[in-house]
Amino acid sequence: MGLRKDIWRPAIVDTPIEAIWARGSIDAFPLRWLPPMPSFCFLADPFGHWRDGKLHVFVETYDYRVRIGAIEVLIYDSEGRLLERGPVLNEPWHLSYPFIFEGEGETWMLPEAHRSGGLTLYRAVDYPYRWEAAARIALDHVAVDASPIFHDGLWWLFYTSASQEAHKMEALHVAWARSLTGPWTPHSGNPVRMDRASARPGGTPCIIDGRIILPVQDCSRTYGGAIRPLRIDRLTPDVFVAEVGPSLTPPASAAPYVEGLHTLTAAGPVTLIDMKRTELSLHGLSIELRREAGKLVRAARAGR
Prior knowledge:
Elements: E1 4-13, H1 17-23, E2 31-33, E3 41-51, E4 54-63, E5 70-76, E6 82-89, E7 96-103, E8 106-112, E9 119-126, E10 130-137, E11 143-151, E12 154-161, H2 167-170, E13 171-177, E14 185-186, E15 193-194, E16 206-208, E17 211-218, E18 226-235, E19 240-244, E20 260-267, E21 270-280, H3 282-302
Antiparallel strand pairs: 1-2, 1-21, 3-4, 4-5, 5-6, 7-8, 8-9, 9-10, 11-12, 12-13, 13-14, 13-15, 16-17, 17-18, 18-19, 20-21
């Protein structure tokens, strides 16, 4: 509970992710903001997917009054005009980080859902609005922000651990499988990296010059303060060798959303990011107080 709330807002960067990594900055590239949200609501964790000449942007939608995220899609034409938007996935637990990708002849979504006690892979039934649970992925830990990539004949999954609050930010794990639906085998060196400044995944891994580059969050100063490239030099079921590059931070032109950047995702000719500002108000505290009071009332009624 507190007065200060993180408010995230995604944007479309008009350049491919490779150009951002090469430059080491977002400053030189134009941004197109996703629509604003009402007070104490936000969109975050944008992932893009092109189909039929349209960009589908999947995002977390969040309301501090409810505190359970859900997944929504915004559909843009090739000129960047918003055509439609709507809900995609709701569960009784919090959903975010809707990692959308193609593989094995299907379209998949692997959202963050550690409050469900596990990790569920969803398959598109009627793209983009209908999805079905296809597999429960069993790992060594309940995964946070799981990020897959196919490389050297295997599927790889990068994630942090929900076993401790600190490990969500600092304990990078890896698993591998021959099929998306498993079985998945945890890397023998897990956790392969312990560093609050460069462990939690923050977007789509990509392969540049033969190396995997994994966007990771720099949470050393604040949650989602910046994105850094984790360049993986060697990756086998028993070996993990990587080095981290300098931080990507919000450009000054994004003001007032300059207090954090925690997602960087590839979508062909464009890249998706989200940036944050913090909102300080008594109204925010009143929302928390009403929620806590509601919990007490429900608990008292249940105890009768």
